[in-house]
Fold:
Amino acid sequence: MKGAKVLRHFFVIEIIEKAEVCMKVIKLAVVALAMVVLSPYIARAADWDIAFENKIGGTHYHEEYSTIDSKWNAFYYEGLISANYFKEKGLVGRVDLGIPVTASAEEQWDVSSVKYQTDDMKFWGMEGNIELGYAMPIIVDKMPFALLGGYGFNFTRFTRTNFIVLSKITSTAIVDEDYWVHHLDLGGKLVYNVSDKLKVDLKSMFGFVVYNSAHNSVLGDVNGDGGYTIRTETNVNYKYSENLALSLGGFFTFQHLEGGTSGNLVWPDNDLYTYGGNIAVKYLF
Structure:
């Protein structure tokens, strides 16, 4: 019992430390945005906006280890707020913070391609990204391109329950599994100015995972061996009025994490996909 109290004590400390790291990241994001906005490269206040985005679609999660294979699909939604600065030539930047959630859906585990276990799974989380870069016109003045670099983090809590092994209910306990991921990104954004009111943009970022870890509420902690992320989105932006713009588009993200081991605990390699449509309202300054 005393050992269990010690473990819980260290777990609470770890959660507090990770929360402090996230707050430092958010503060850094705010500072970075302020640097962009106040930069001497900025000539017009109208070059930046605050957007309220809604991403709606689906998600797919997959684990694989030896002869064990899992698959899961569910409805996906993310509410996101972002501050963006973009001009046709010069310094550009973006800071965003989002909260994704999913519906609960059945996860299936196969052993040697034979159905072995099912459970009900869902997740919620938090993610943030900082991007800085430089834009310049290419081909024609109507088509600026920005080369971007950045940093991102995400926290994801998977929750599983209603475990059924070989068609027999074995447990209705709730098991949480937390993923922490930090990545450095490189990519670009292309904008085509159709008219003064209509713009089309395409952005793609590739991220190198520099840190990833998992905590299972039953099994414990394990660190991973890196991985990579891909984030792509395209949007059609319409300037409705002097201070209001509407955006409609689509998105696709992919995250591959290399798992790890800690004693007898194995964290399998895993893939997470999200995809769907994006609707946003932007306030222009």
